[in-house]
Amino acid sequence: MDTNTDYDAIVIGAGAGGCCAAARLAHNGLRTLLIDDHDRVGGRASTEIIDGHLVNVGAIALEFGGVFQDTFELVGADFPVRMPNPANAFYLDRKVVDVGRGGWSMLLGGLTKQAARILEQFAQAKSGSLPDGRMSTKDWLSGYTKNETVHAIFRNLCAAIFAANADELPARAFLTYFTSKGAFKKFGFHPEGTIGAWKALAAVVQRNGDVWLETRAEAIKVENGAAKAIVINRNGTQARLVSDVIVSNAGPKATVALAGAEHFPDDYIARLKRDLKPAANIVFNFASREPLLSAPGIVTFGKTRRLCNLANLTASCPELAPAGWHQYVAYAVPVPALGDFNETEEVALAHEDLREQFPGFDGKVKMLSIRVMRGDWPAQRSCAGYDLPRETGIAGLWCVGDAVKEYGNGGTQACAETAKLVVDDILARQQHRPAAE
Hints:
- There is one protein chain.
- It is built from 13 helices and 20 strands.
- The protein has helices at about 15-25, 65-75, 105-110, 115-125, 135-140, 150-160, 170-180, 195-205, 250-260, 265-275, 345-355, 360-365, 410-430; strands at about 1-5, 10, 30-35, 45-50, 55, 60-65, 90, 95, 185-190, 210, 215-225, 225-235, 235-240, 245-250, 280-290, 300, 305-310, 325-330, 365-375, 395-400.
- The strands form 5 sheets. Strands 8-7-16-17-18-15-19 form a 7-stranded mixed sheet.
- Strand 16 and strand 17 form a beta hairpin.
- The protein is globular.
- The model has no long low-confidence stretch (mean pLDDT about 95).
């Protein structure tokens, strides 16, 4: 195998966390290599072309005003994301309900007499009083209301943001997100598809390093408790790349498989087996000649079987579709989302929801893709509230992405945050490294 020692840092996986980490590393002067085994960047938030449409594989919402946008501004990457107005609304009884001004108070006040009690719990959570991490969101909400529509809305919020059902997501994580995290208040869509964001970050990496696609990581080499190199397969040729800074965006499970479980601390392996809970969802991409709804952003549904939300993409980014087409993406979450399920039945239930919410649906739309994200290609590598640490216990090896999020965070914002925290740690350690090293 050829040996290459030209890279100060190697990042495995060009998903949201990997692209953000690699761009930050390269921007801070480390000659960085970003690899991915696919033919495009973005991972589970990439974009493909189907029948002339730019179709997003998974994630679509890119947040303003936080660490995600800060990453682009720091490294000098383009950020042409367009914010719909309003960004969020609810779709109840086939009517768009904009709660931009009234917020939770307006929404809940029109549905249940217990609105004040629920809102008080949000206020207490904001001041730091949170339920036990073992209580589910459903059980927490049941203590204040039995209203079916309220429960349906909370379920679909859990599903839309965390790819989990309300009885699977810890109430502590749900409340943390809505009281101290971004809560998707300001987000937008990329006119090139979500892949446009990752292409901009990859271009930053290439200023001080390389991006190799269709390059598979086959092993992470560990010596004396420290990561020293990776073995890759590129164009059918193996190579050993030496670096003492390795960042994995492949998820903790795949990272352990690459490095060998015997090299990790026992408690890390125990947490991997006990805590890691991949979350699943079903993604429908479709287009229509006539608009299906007026809301320009994302709508969250009320009572449904599995459908949780829908985004009106071309209202903000008409470039995503050929002229004359309106393009949408809808998300559904199976039952269970954190365990095994019947894929055929769950897709059928979600499809039935679309027909119910939009009468004549099948005759109005062109279905572009139906993708079930689960298993080794999940909606989230671990549900919020069940994240592993970014530090692996192996010196020089970190994880980034949606299995090592800060508690209660979600989305691409959370992935970008993991990248910032890891890169800050790497830079701090390098500043304190003895000159002899």
